[in-house]
Amino acid sequence: MLCPGIVCLGIWFCPESPRWLIGNERDDEARAILVKYHANGDSNHPLVKLEMAEMVESLRREGMLTWRNFFDLRVLFKSRSRRYRMMLNVSFSWFGQFSGNNIASYYLPYLLENVGVADTNTKLLLNIVYAITGWIPAMVGARCHDIIGRRKMLLGCTAGMAVCLAIAAGTAAGYINTGSRSSSSASIAFIYLFGSVFAFAFTSMQPVYPGEVMSNDMRGKGMGVSQLTSGLAGFVNTFAAPVALKNIRYWFYVFFVFWDLFEFAFIYFFYVETNGRTLEELDEVFEAPNPRKASTAPTALPRQLPVGQIDEEEPKHEAVV
């Protein structure tokens, strides 16, 4: 209750989205926010006029979600670029709940029993420690994905997750075959390390990346699909994990080793880098023949206004309906 309560109170101190303000004909308020946060208070900074022009043009072209088109899902799939966006949205939402993380968090007592930890109090204590070791990397990762970049963090962490699960599986097998306490301890340690690696990239990015890859008119519906996908992945885990852990034990880790390697390949070939780009710049990235290559090109896409636009007033627009 504490964290949701903090959010409910803190949201009143957050500024409105400039795009929402522009879409509701409150351009002056949108401009004031850009001046404050993007131009260090300089109302004449060219970046302010540039971003205002980009937002106005994007909203003029795509419009905003309204009650008239609230249930029209065609907007999510009506072009190649939109289908590509949805592929990233859905895949990330699935990966975020089906990378081995749920078996490590929800079913940690099963994992501990498989490596010889039977005492209830010990399992409870280890569960608490696991939650803390996930929370701290998630907080650090929330800052680092703006420094390292989304793709590098995801690629590094999926590779790290596969390695951790492979070692956890090997040491769990060693304990089952030999009864070695050192194998048991090593397996527990790498389960914890896996949870930290996962939290560093995926936990910190789950509220961010699915929304970033959506265009303005797709975002509300796209995030609904994201939540539905996450719930479906959690549903599969809820019913499959206990049975698998009971019957095939450490081989279930091995399954996720190969699944995480598949995630690594999928992210490498398809995921776009969203760090350092505005949503309007990402529109250009997704219209490219290969969005992933466009997002990782050595030089960023140019941000240009029509000739003379920077020296003029921000473009006027009609209400978006």
UniProtKB/TrEMBL annotation:
<feature type="transmembrane region" description="Helical">
    <location>
        <begin position="224"/>
        <end position="244"/>
    </location>
</feature>
<dbReference type="GO" id="GO:0016020">
    <property type="term" value="C:membrane"/>
</dbReference>
<feature type="transmembrane region" description="Helical">
    <location>
        <begin position="154"/>
        <end position="176"/>
    </location>
</feature>
<keyword id="KW-1133">Transmembrane helix</keyword>
<feature type="transmembrane region" description="Helical">
    <location>
        <begin position="124"/>
        <end position="142"/>
    </location>
</feature>
<feature type="region of interest" description="Disordered">
    <location>
        <begin position="290"/>
        <end position="321"/>
    </location>
</feature>
<keyword id="KW-0812">Transmembrane</keyword>
<dbReference type="InterPro" id="IPR005828">
    <property type="entry name" value="MFS_sugar_transport-like"/>
</dbReference>
<keyword id="KW-0472">Membrane</keyword>
<dbReference type="GO" id="GO:0005351">
    <property type="term" value="F:carbohydrate:proton symporter activity"/>
</dbReference>
<feature type="transmembrane region" description="Helical">
    <location>
        <begin position="250"/>
        <end position="271"/>
    </location>
</feature>
<protein>
    <submittedName>
        <fullName>Lactose permease</fullName>
    </submittedName>
</protein>
<dbReference type="InterPro" id="IPR036259">
    <property type="entry name" value="MFS_trans_sf"/>
</dbReference>
<feature type="transmembrane region" description="Helical">
    <location>
        <begin position="86"/>
        <end position="104"/>
    </location>
</feature>
<dbReference type="InterPro" id="IPR050360">
    <property type="entry name" value="MFS_Sugar_Transporters"/>
</dbReference>
<dbReference type="Pfam" id="PF00083">
    <property type="entry name" value="Sugar_tr"/>
</dbReference>
<feature type="transmembrane region" description="Helical">
    <location>
        <begin position="182"/>
        <end position="203"/>
    </location>
</feature>
